[in-house]
Amino acid sequence: MSGKNIREKGIQSLLFLSGTVAVVALFLLCIFLFREGILLFEDYPVSSFLTNTKWFPTASPPIFGLLPLLLGSLIVTAGAIMFSVPLGIAAAIYISELANPRISSILKPVTEILAGIPSVVFGFFGLVILAPVVQRTLEIPTGQTALTGSIMLGIMALPTIISISEDAISSVPRSIKEGSLALGSTKWQTIYRVTVPAALSGISAAVMLGIGRAIGETMTVMMVTGNSAVIPGFPSGLFAPVRTMTATIALEMGEVPQGSDHFHALFAVGSVLFITTFIINILANYVKRRYRFNL
Amino acid sequence: MFSNAKLNEKIAFALLKVATGLVVAFVLVILYYIIYNGYSAINLEFITDMPRNRMTEGGIYPAIMGTTYLIIGSMAVALPLGILSAIYLTEYAQPGRTTWAIEMAINNLAGTPSVVFGLFGLAMFVKYLGFGPSIISASLTLALLILPVIIRASQEALLTVPKEYREASLALGVTKWETIRRVVLPAAIPGMVTGAILSIGRVAGETAPILLTGAAYFLPRLPDSVYSQFMALPYHLYVLATSGTNIAQTRPIQYGTALILLTIVLCVNLVAVSVRSHYRSKMRR
Questions:
Q1: Among chain A residues, CA nearest to B255
Q2: What is the model's pLDDT at position B217?
Q3: Alpha carbon distance, N-terminus to C-terminus of chain A
Q4: Phi and psi for A81 in degrees, rounded to 5?
Q5: Where in this chain does the entry annotate a coiled-coil region (chain A) (predicted)?
Q6: What span, in angstroms and rounded, lies between the C-alpha atoms of A165 and A95?
């Protein structure tokens, strides 16, 4: 009996150790990322990194200004969110409230397929099919623009926004909707005055996670946004090439010697990216939990 | 007034339908272009041959094998760890600070951009542990990337096992671990398999992490150990489409590679869905 007990205890400790693997992984990730990133500031002032408006990593002396990359990420993400949020929420409402079960059982796998397509395939599609269309339609010198990136990223953020919003909308209790209908409201009035407001916390979380997905996407933006590191104007910058934080890391890491300032600068950019998505994740989970529908 | 509300409803519903239609159209357009253009490039030689003539001719065999190695390597690490972690979280963990920290870490790992995982893999596996740019560095990096997916799927699978199963077994005097091993796990396996299969699709498609941890532009032969560099499907597509010497000339190879990649991912999804529904109907009986 006691042998059995010891075994049970041993297994429990082993499982606990495996249980903490996510914490350990996140911890190691922070350490290694920040350690390499901070080394940049031995040779290069933090203030210049944060405020300089130029990213000239190979000039002498090199200039590592974060701003053009940060703003590049922001403009592409903003463009993506502007069209994927309304579209995604509308599709989520349709799937959970209007479509009959047979149609929604087809629509759900369709969004799952969209979620499964690798980002490099999206990038390839954007580069070969969409960019020429954008160029011809807008009559601009190149189709590799922030707008092209926004369109592709918007499409890629759709599954995240749709599936989480749809969960939130369908978890609104039926009694509430029926109450509204019984008072004589139309189905649509019930949806936009009762159901959607009740699901708003889940929908906001969906939007935030969509933003997180878009800002962290690498291959697609790298292949379709043209990658020129200049501070984008607004809205004119949408129609010109930009370069995001993610694309900079992926493009330049292959060519820098390990341990150089440029190497550390890319880790510093990665740290900024990580902190940004970390905050977005925390906020999204907080919103989701804080306002969960209780009845 | 009343008819106005009805009219509004008609317009609103029409718009919702259009929006949903657009989403479906995006999927169909992307699939159409890749399948239509990639179909003619694919034949047996394309899958079994080495690239020739500076990658402008020949097949993509080493890239397919490279991706296979990555799938095996990362699953071998992430699957056992993820399942054990999920068992701890659903069967043993008490609500409290530790559990909160674990849940938070899983959520954050799931939302961390893949290129950041790449940087981490570069700093820790390639540089600090000295594995160099290699299959093992890339596999470990990808393993961490899919860990949250596997944990979440396994947790969900464990939660669907009815409480009565556990209680009946415990009431017979079986210990907690034996109950989990003999009763809970067998019932949860299909759900876990689904999660595992879905993360295969993720591993096959990820590019940014392997770009930083060991994917090679071109190798004329297969890697000879886990410490070798490797070719992989998504990176091969990226290289051919953006920086090859003959971007226009290799377009068919690009479409073919994209289609193979897409096929792997779609098959994986299909298998996962059918495993899920097969076992669901079996459980009901």
A1: A124
A2: 80
A3: 46
A4: -65, -35
A5: none
A6: 10
Instruction: Compute, in degrees rounded to 10, the torsion defined by CA atoms B92, B97, B102, B106.
Output: 130
Q: Which of B8, B111, B208 is the closest to A250 by Cβ?
A: B208
Cα-based distances in Å from A63 to A40, A244, A253, B177, B263: 12, 17, 16, 58, 44
- Which structure tokens are listed for A36? 């390499």
Q: Are residues B95 and B35 in the same domain?
A: no
pLDDT tens readout for residues B154-207:
998 999 888 898 999 999 988 899 999 999 999 898 888 888 888 998 999 999
Chain B positions in Cβ-Cβ contact with residue A158 (cut-off 8 Å): 23, 26
Report the complex ipTM. Answer: 0.92
Residues B134 and B234 in one domain: yes
Q: Are residues B14 and B50 in the same domain?
A: no
Instruction: Specify whether the CB–CB gap between B128 and A32 falls below 8 A.
Output: yes
Amino acid at residue number A171: S
CB contact under 8 A, B33 and A249: no
pTM: 0.92
Q: A67-290: which CATH number, 1.10.260.40, 1.10.3720.10, 1.10.443.10, 2.40.10.10?
A: 1.10.3720.10
A125: Cβ–Cβ under 8 A, 6 or more apart, which residues? A152, B30, B33, B34, B258
Give the model's pLDDT for residue A268: 96
CB A284 within 8 A of CB A209: yes
pLDDT at B56: 72
For residue A27, the model assigns a pLDDT of: 96
**With an 8 Å Cβ cutoff, is A266 touching chain B?**
yes
Confidence (pLDDT) at A251:
92
Q: Check whether residue B122 and residue B163 sit in a common domain.
A: yes
Residues B8 and B57 in one domain: no
Residue B244 has pLDDT above 70, yes or no: no
Q: Is A42 buried (19+), middle (13-18) or exposed (0-12) by CB count in 10 A?
A: exposed
Residue A7 and residue B234: Cβ atoms within 8 Å? no
User: Domain-by-domain residue ranges, chain A?
Assistant: 2-38, 67-290
| Per-residue pLDDT, A295 | 46
Residue B43 has pLDDT above 90, yes or no: no
Q: Give chain A positions within 8 Å (CB) of B175.
A: 4, 8
pLDDT along chain A (295 residues), means of 10: 80 90 95 95 92 89 93 94 94 92 87 91 95 91 91 95 92 90 90 91 92 94 86 78 94 90 96 96 85 54
What range defines the domain where residue B160 resides?
Answer: 44-284
Interchain contact A281–B (C-beta under 8 A)? yes
